[in-house]
Amino acid sequence: MEVIVRASADAVADYVHDRIVEQLRGVPSSVLGLPTGGTPVPVYARLVESYRTGVISFKQATTFNLDEYIGLGSEHPASYAAYMRHHLFDHVDCPARRRHIPDGLASDVDAEAAAYDRAIANAGGMGLLLLGLGENAHIGFNEPGSDFASRTRPVDLAASTMAANARYFTDGTRPPTRALSMGIGTILEARSIIVMATGPRKAEAVRRMVREAPTNEVPGSALQLSRDVTVVLDHAASSKLERHLRPPCQQQQAPQ
Ligand code: F6R
After folding, report:
1. What is the CATH number of the domain that holds 56?
2. Alpha-helix residue ranges (DSSP H) falling in the chain
3. Band of the pLDDT at 244, cuts 50, 70, 90?
4. Active-site annotation holder among 67, 112, 117, 234
5. Which residues does a 6 A CB cutoff place in the pocket of ligand 1?
6. Do the Cβ atoms of 61 and 29 come closer than 8 Å?
7. Does the annotation mark 10 as catalytic?
8. Using a CB cutoff of 8 Å and minimum separation of 24, what contacts does 144-147 make?
9. Catalytic annotation, pick one of 138, 142, 189, 234
10. Residue among 143, 165, 189, 234 flagged as catalytic
């Protein structure tokens, strides 16, 4: 796990943008995994600008979003499909047939989830996966207790996740209690992963993800098992990482 600390949320977005640009310019047919939420919004704004100025194209790219609420159709303003159109897809040249988001209205959610994992595999697997981090250290909607081997599946959202996301349901719709989420096992198969976290509310989740021995209670800690993970933080999100802390196994040794 490489941990990079930048001065501000804008600088974090600059870093992530530059990594995605590098990926797309190196491999235009890249398969990207993409998150929603507040943290990546400035990344998408920068990518749209880079597309407009001819720096990148998504024409040959394939995308897989991490999750979608069960019960929301793609036209619902709080759906992640609508989020992705608003922040990215309406403004770049990624063909609709290569943009994937789980169908929140699927009549058989288990079949939809299994088909989603098959589609990722058929596309050759994700080359670069971008993740946000929940305040409870969830990744995708893999809440505490999720199996590290889990595949894409229907999940129950934690109460804290529903509370954190209630702000997006401004039209009186009750926030969904379930979602389809890429599993942790699916996530760990991505060849390269970037996790971004900004702001003081993420500091404890970041500490647990980076410093605790991998445990199901801290879904983000599963990322320690991946060969290529970059965690990029602003100062506030990194505030609980002690700079010179040794790995957990050494910390437990009695002083000489
Ligand atoms: C979103 C997702 C979630 C978010 C996380 C952080 O697709 O999978 O794991 O990345 O809840 O959300 P924000 O960025 O809103 O703090």
Report:
1. 3.40.50.1360
2. 9-26, 41-52, 80-87, 109-122, 159-165, 184-188, 203-211, 248-251
3. very low
4. 67
5. 35-39, 66-67, 132-134, 138-141
6. yes
7. no
8. 144/216, 144/217, 144/218, 144/219, 145/216, 145/217, 146/183, 146/184, 146/216, 146/219, 147/183, 147/184, 147/185, 147/216
9. 138
10. 143
For the chain, what is the domain count? 1
User: pLDDT tens across 175-205, in order?
Assistant: 899 999 999 999 999 999 999 999 999 999 9
Query: What is the domain range of residue 132?
Result: 2-253
pTM of the model: 0.93
**217 given a catalytic annotation:** no
Express each pLDDT in 140-175 by its tens digit: 999 999 999 999 999 999 998 888 888 888 877 788
Angle of CA points 189, 180, 166, to nearest 5°: 120
Does 138 qualify as catalytic in the annotation? Answer: yes
Active site residue 143: yes
